[in-house]
């Protein structure tokens, strides 16, 4: 399924309001998420893009100077994070902070997204 056919207008509109550098990072991560799994559905919850499959999987949380690629079941995902990318100490959620396009690690991020989808497959 093509990337553009899986996006939703409310997220498109939200992203247009972001600063240009943050918009580029967020759009790059958005494409990475869609390419990682055809099962993921885009939703707009808690004022940010979320991606679901049998429940919450991951989210994009743009800020002024960075974008967090977050995982709702990040605590469960942490044992698969061999490169130590995940941050956070909450009960369940973890995130990866991305400040520049160069911070994006496509292979590692894709692997974590696929595993996160698998966690919701059970």
Automatic annotation (TrEMBL):
Protein name: DUF1801 domain-containing protein
Lineage: Bacteria, Bacillati, Bacillota, Bacilli, Bacillales
One Pfam entry name: DUF1801
Record-annotated YdhG-like domain positions: 25-116
The organism's place on the tree of life at top rank: Bacteria
């Amino acid at each position: 399924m093509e990337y553009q056919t899986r996006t939703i207008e409310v997220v498109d509109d939200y992203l247009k309001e972001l600063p240009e550098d943050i918009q580029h990072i967020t759009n790059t991560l958005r494409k990475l998420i869609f390419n990682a799994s055809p099962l993921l559905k885009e939703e707009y919850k808690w004022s940010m893009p979320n991606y679901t499959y049998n429940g919450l999987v991951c989210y994009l949380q743009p800020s002024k100077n960075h974008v967090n690629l977050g995982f709702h079941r990040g605590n469960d995902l942490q044992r698969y994070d061999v490169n130590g990318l995940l941050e956070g100490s909450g009960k369940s959620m973890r995130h990866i902070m991305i400040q520049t396009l160069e911070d994006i690690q496509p292979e590692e991020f894709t692997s974590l997204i696929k595993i996160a989808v698998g966690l919701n497959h059970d």
